[in-house]
Design a protein that fits this description.
The chain contains 24 helices and 20 strands. The chain is α+β, with helices and mostly antiparallel strands.
Length: about 650
């Protein structure tokens, strides 16, 4: 990364290399513990012991070495290593949060395992806890790459007017009120006002608007957007982290830090359960006249293996279920939050719609055939790189229409295109501004066509040949085939608050919302305004999900309780910022993932209350009365862990695709 050159980051300097090293270092700990646990399990395999010790091929020295090997409990090593690390991190966490966490339960469990010489059980408990922490850290590190994707939208250099000539300089040398040049095909490096020239700017990274915007003198341009055509001189008004994209990056960082403080279910429960276990063990001590065996049995039955497994096993099963259906879920916190969603906000472009313009209406005004009109439009537009031109070209080729040879092509800024065909035949394809051309004869059907199409948010074009308006073409972003069914399914599942948040114009937004069945629409929003609306919903104690696909959606995806990104067509920043990614872009899977998350919460509660707590209470009563000795207590707590795994595995077969 090159944060210094951009000047984008503000007090958020991070090193990708250091982060990678930290992740690798944390991965080494559970990997080493797992290796030692496997070796310990092999060591305790009585069949292998008996075969080796009874082998007539062993010498006396070899037999003595094997006896020493089997007499030493190898499981002591991973239990001590894991226990030391858990004890340290638990102490630090308790000091920082000023409350008891689930880690203290594991420390107590390891102590009880050591007293009863259940070293392997203690090592496994330590491995489970440390592995869970590693997976959470890995997920957090991946979400930070969202910022990297945003930073890469801004170029490292800019063309600066210096000493009466244009000089390419590092971006950090550009100051307020400087004059810069943005050429065709380049990204805009700063926020500023156009003072000369005109250009077609793709602002989809910021606004989500699928159509590029024509801009000229006095219009604003923003860092990270793309100049598709033309050249402009820009007076710098904002640089670095003060630009629109810089503020978005700041917001993404803040949202990441806020999400990192979310408590897990196990930690909340441990605040009450751990002190209770200590009190119970103390009572047993006094009632049994200081019986170490009974106190040890109580502590061992209170081993939080089932509690530690309660959430992760359900999460793993849920993630596996979702993955089979093309949905990527990033961790347990996401599953827990998704199970509580009561409000969903959708971006429009690329989420509810396909994200690219298509021909939605084509009409002849009676002067010639539709085929000739389409051929003329194709011939005029085929050399243009504009998204609308590509839509017309694709539609014409689909209809089997071939272009005719043209002698001259011109793209007229703010109007459309003009082409000269054989025998000096002039053809125009353009918007309503064509009617202002004095030589073009106004057709009543043309005015009606323009009014009808633009009233529903479509881009209306006229095809003109030799000053005669022959027909009209309407272009718009079209609704995904599964969007309407998805909205209906969400309402049936109990989610009634469904909102569209878009940077597009109000007319287009209303048209799309009506087609898919969304009643609440917030249009012409900048990324920061989307955030304000989500914060407003959250202030009303709602659990908000945001569904989007563009870079402009990344802050909203991060700020919302559950960010859901469209995968195959989505921007990298949106995918990295989201907690859930629909890899196949099937919107109907939203209903499945929400139902799956709700079922996960139910099973997590069953695991905690029924198996982790219920069996612990029963076991504590039996251990305190002397019915269970330490070995039986260890067996019982392993049985409760097995029940947790079996119960969670039911999620693998969950299916709610309609």
């Amino acid at each position: 990364m090159h944060e210094g050159g951009h000047g984008i980051l503000h007090n958020h300097g991070t090193s990708d290399r250091n982060t990678s090293r930290t992740i690798c270092g944390k991965f080494a700990v559970p990997a080493i513990l797992l290796l030692l646990i496997v070796l310990s399990a092999v060591q305790n395999w009585s069949i292998i012991q008996g075969h080796l010790l009874n082998s007539s091929e062993l010498t006396t020295v070899q037999e003595e070495s094997l006896r020493r090997w089997f007499e030493f409990e190898l499981a002591v090593i991973p239990m001590l290593l894991g226990g030391a690390l858990i004890a340290y991190t638990t102490l630090v966490s308790m000091i920082e949060k000023r409350q008891i966490t689930a880690g203290l339960l594991v420390v107590i469990a390891l102590f009880a395992s050591a007293l009863t010489e259940e070293y392997l059980a203690g090592a496994i408990a330590a491995f489970i806890m440390i592995s869970g922490e590693f997976l959470e850290e890995l997920t957090l590190a991946k979400t930070r790459s969202a910022v990297k994707a945003l930073i890469e939208l801004v170029p490292e250099t800019a063309w600066l007017f210096q000493d009466k000539k244009w000089v390419q300089v590092p971006l950090h040398q550009v100051k307020l009120s400087d004059l810069i040049l943005v050429k065709s095909g380049e990204r805009v490096p700063v926020d500023g006002e156009i003072v000369s020239g005109r250009a077609t700017i793709d602002e989809s990274t910021l606004t989500g608007e699928s159509m590029p915007v024509d801009k000229t003198v006095s219009n604003m341009v923003f860092a990270g957007t793309i100049n598709q055509d033309g050249a402009v001189e820009v007076k710098v008004s904002q640089t670095g982290h003060h630009t629109a994209i810089g503020r978005i990056i700041d917001i993404v960082y803040q949202a990441q830090e806020n999400k990192g403080q979310t408590q897990r279910v196990a930690d909340k429960f441990a605040q009450y359960f751990t002190p209770l276990i200590i009190v119970v063990a103390t009572i047993v001590w006094f009632l049994t006249n200081g019986s170490v065996t009974k106190v040890t049995a109580v502590l061992l039955i209170a081993c939080p293996c089932a509690l530690v497994l309660a959430t992760p096993t359900a999460v793993v099963a849920s993630v596996g279920n979702a993955a089979k259906r093309g949905v990527l879920v990033k961790g347990g916190i996401v599953i827990e939050a998704a199970g509580q969603i009561d409000t969903i906000c959708f971006d429009k472009t690329g989420t509810l719609t396909h994200g690219k313009p298509e021909i939605v209406a084509f009409e002849s005004f009676g002067l010639t055939t539709e085929e000739e009109i389409l051929q003329l439009a194709l011939s005029a537009e085929i050399r243009s790189e504009h998204p609308i031109a590509k839509a017309i070209t694709a539609y014409a080729q689909q209809e089997g229409v071939q272009p005719v040879e043209i002698h001259h092509f011109e793209q007229v800024f703010g109007v459309g295109v003009k082409a000269t065909l054989g025998q000096d035949l002039q053809v125009w394809v353009g918007n309503w501004r064509l009617l202002a051309q004095g030589a073009i004869e106004v057709h009543p059907l043309a005015e009606k066509f323009l009014q009808q199409q633009e009233s529903v948010g479509r881009t209306a074009l006229l095809v003109v040949k030799d000053q005669l308006i022959l027909g009209g073409i309407a272009v718009a972003d079209t609704v995904r085939e599964d969007a309407t069914e998805m909205v209906a399914n969400l309402r049936q599942s109990g989610i009634q608050d469904i909102v569209m948040l878009t940077g597009d114009n109000q007319a287009t937004a209303n048209t799309i919302a009506e087609q898919v069945g969304i009643e609440t629409v917030q249009a012409q929003l900048l990324p920061t305004e989307k955030l304000d609306y989500i914060r407003q919903l959250q202030s009303q104690n709602r659990t908000v999900a945001m569904v989007g696909d563009g870079v402009n959606d990344a802050p909203a995806l991060m700020l919302s309780d559950v960010g859901i990104a469209m995968g195959a067509a989505g921007a990298d920043a949106a995918i990295e910022s989201a907690g859930i990614v629909l890899m196949g872009n099937d919107l109907r899977l939203l209903n499945h993932i929400i139902g799956l998350s709700r079922q996960s919460l139910i099973l997590i509660k069953q695991n905690i209350i029924g198996f982790a707590v219920g069996m612990n209470i029963l076991g504590i009563m039996l251990a305190g009365s002397g019915i269970l000795n330490p070995i039986m207590a260890a067996v019982m707590h392993n049985i409760s862990s097995a029940f947790v795994v079996i119960n969670s595995s039911r999620l693998l077969g969950f299916d709610k695709t309609s």
